[in-house]
């Protein structure tokens, strides 16, 4: 008796395993659904390459928007790029490190003015960041307890951060005008605190005006970040501290500040970078010719580049500023990470 292809022929050995899901011995609808869910990439690409494909558009945009102009600026810093070669900067002769030597020659007029601008910017950044963090921390702590009108106050506190920078600074410029400004109208005309209307946008007062506007714009950001961080502290911790007899200041010192220390480390770094690089506020407030007391380095580099059309020298100062910020950031991250490891240990 012979058998045909459609007869009762026993399956060959291993056919059940091979007919399943790749030798696992499983078959049926569940195995087919499992196999259908697995993404298969063509060629040699495996599942490990899929996240990199998703990141590729962002990396390309980052390269085009940030890294490419940065590289071009570094190349420009090694050229004698003046107004004579602005129509085709590729023909500008190479100057080597001459632009950098002029920038760091603090005995010369250009180097001396750059050093003065750098010191003013450092002082402005320390004062502005310190006051912004202090006000933001105080407001965040005070807004933790529930009371009537808390939501309205939080919204009012965030108003300076929500306003467009151009509208806010231009409004401040009108407020600080000597003859028609609202501040002099109150201080001099109404209260009679001064013999004559003071100048707020020139002289030494320009520095304090710049600090006030910077703090007014930045402290709501600190308030917002710290308010979110304080939500993660359980209320039971404060209740236990009150039972143990801890006062308000002891609770802030022993509970609040240690709990938000990681957030504060990032917050201070972000505020430092924003404030040190701030260009919009001083430029809109003073224009191209900022007073010596408020000559921030961002406006100084802009004026050296576009005022004298010496883009090679301006690019060299920008590169030096970038290196300084990278150095400060690296040192800050090293010290904060060491402090965090010491606490964990």
Provide a compact summary of the structure.
The protein is mainly alpha-helical and 345 residues long. It has helices spanning 15-18, 29-37, 50-76, 98-104, 109-142, 150-157, 159-162, 165-175, 182-190, 205-230, 235-243, 248-259, 261-276, 280-286, 297-307, 311-344.
Class per helix and strand makeup: mainly alpha
CATH class of the domain at 116-314, named Mainly Alpha
The strand count comes to: 0
Q: What sequence of helices (H) and strands (E) makes up the elements? A: HHHHHHHHHHHHHHHH
Q: Which range does the strand content fall in?
A: under 5%
CATH superfamily name of the domain at 116-314? MetI-like
The protein's oligomeric status is single chain
In CATH, the topology of the domain at 116-314 is named MetI-like fold
Helix content: 55-70%
Shape: globular
| Average pLDDT taken over every residue | 83
Number of helices, counting only DSSP H or I runs of 4 residues or more: 16
Family: Belongs to the binding-protein-dependent transport system permease family.
Protein name: Sugar ABC transporter permease
Keywords: Cell membrane, Membrane, Transmembrane, Transmembrane helix, Transport
GO cellular component, one term: plasma membrane
């Amino acid at each position: 008796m012979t058998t045909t292809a459609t007869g009762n022929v026993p399956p060959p050995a291993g056919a059940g395993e091979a007919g399943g899901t790749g030798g696992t011995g499983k078959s049926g609808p569940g195995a087919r659904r499992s196999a259908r869910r697995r993404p298969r990439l063509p060629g040699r690409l495996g599942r490990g390459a899929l996240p990199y494909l998703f990141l590729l558009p962002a990396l390309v945009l980052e390269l085009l928007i940030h890294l490419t102009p940065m590289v071009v600026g570094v190349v420009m810093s090694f050229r004698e790029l003046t107004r004579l070669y602005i129509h085709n900067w590729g023909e500008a002769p190479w100057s080597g490190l001459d632009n950098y030597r002029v920038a760091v020659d603090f005995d010369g007029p250009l180097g001396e003015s750059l050093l003065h601008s750098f010191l003013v910017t450092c002082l402005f950044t320390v004062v502005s960041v310190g006051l912004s963090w202090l006000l933001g921390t105080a407001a965040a702590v005070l807004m933790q307890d529930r009371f009537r009108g808390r939501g309205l106050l939080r919204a009012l506190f965030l108003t300076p951060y929500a306003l467009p920078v151009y509208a806010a600074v231009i409004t401040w410029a009108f407020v600080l005008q000597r003859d028609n400004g609202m501040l002099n109208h109150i201080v001099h005309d109404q209260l009679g605190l001064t013999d004559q209307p003071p100048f707020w946008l020139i002289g030494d007062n320009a520095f304090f005006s710049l600090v006030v506007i910077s703090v007014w714009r930045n402290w709501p950001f600190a308030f917002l970040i710290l308010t979110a961080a304080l939500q993660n502290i359980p209320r039971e911790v404060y209740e236990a501290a009150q039972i143990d007899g801890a006062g308000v200041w002891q609770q802030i010192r022993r509970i609040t500040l240690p709990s938000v220390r990681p957030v504060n480390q990032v917050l201070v770094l972000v505020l430092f970078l924003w404030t040190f690089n701030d260009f919009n506020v001083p430029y809109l407030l003073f224009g191209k010719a900022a007073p010596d007391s408020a000559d921030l380095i961002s406006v100084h580099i802009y004026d050296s580049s576009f005022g004298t059309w010496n883009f090679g020298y301006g690019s060299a100062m920008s590169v030096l500023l970038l290196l300084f910020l990278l150095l400060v950031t690296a040192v800050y991250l090293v010290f904060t990470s060491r402090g965090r490891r010491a606490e964990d240990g």
